[in-house]
Amino acid sequence: MSNSSLLVIQKLLSTNAYLGHRIPTSDFQKYLYGFRNEMAIINLEKTLICLRRACNLIESIIRAKGHFLLVNTDPEYNKIVQQMAKRTNQSYINHKWIGGFLTNRKHMKNVQKHFQNFSAHSKFQDASTSSPFDFFPHFRKMQKCFEGIMTHDIPDCLVIINANKNSMAILEANQLQIPIISLMDSNISNRLQKLITYPIPVNDDSIQFVYLFCNLITKTVILSQSAWPLPRKPLSRGRGP
Fold it and tell me: Where are the domains of the chain?
């Protein structure tokens, strides 16, 4: 193992990324190093390999000027995901996944336009008047799901923070054959694990690891964007001597 890999492993160790559950699922066994005090220990060398594969995919998407969608439903990680999305100029969902968000795009585009109109209307309302959201509390919840969406286009990839809490997003992406990068803990179901194209075996309850992961993806995006060809300058049409 190279020195750089050892350094990354040490960082992963410091985040408790290796801590699994007492009873890991059968398909997850291949990612285990062993057991300690009846707790599953995740093999961080395999985690590192999976992280590299995920970063390679992100790099290829960004170099091709594509985009990905960040999916998170854990309130503890909301701020980390939101900051990452803004730094990388990518879309994100920090709330409960809306069924049909990917598989029923035509309807979702119309819904999103309605929310944008509501938002624009509420900005110009007098503070004493009621907002449309006051009459439809459910709309306010749904509006939060759209606030981080920057494009109507289908994403080239989903980046999911917690697989177990986002099974519907994984099912829809799989149905459309959209690549899925997802953190997955040792208690993930075998059925769900089979649908994840770029799994990252890790303790997904570690906020330190989630921060490290988001920082890694952010750096990958920024470096990939720096490789974009510079726009050609127009030829000077000034008069000669």
Answer: 1-94+150-226, 104-122+131-147
The model's pTM is 0.84
Alpha-carbon gap, residue 195 to 30, rounded angstroms: 16
pLDDT of res. 122 = 55
Contact 69, 88 (CB under 8 A): no
What pLDDT, in 10s, does the model give residues 88-120?
999 999 988 888 989 987 777 777 666 666 555
CATH code, residues 1-94+150-226 = 3.40.50.10490
Q: What does the alpha-carbon distance between residue 132 and residue 198 come to, in Å, rounded to a whole number?
A: 41
Write the single-letter amino acid at 83. Q
pLDDT at position 236 is 46
Phi, psi of 35 (to 5 degrees): -130, 150
CA distances for 58 relative to 53, 62, 88, 108, 129, angstroms: 9, 6, 11, 25, 45
Give the residue-averaged pLDDT of 37-60.
95
Cβ-contact 70, 159 below 8 angstroms? yes
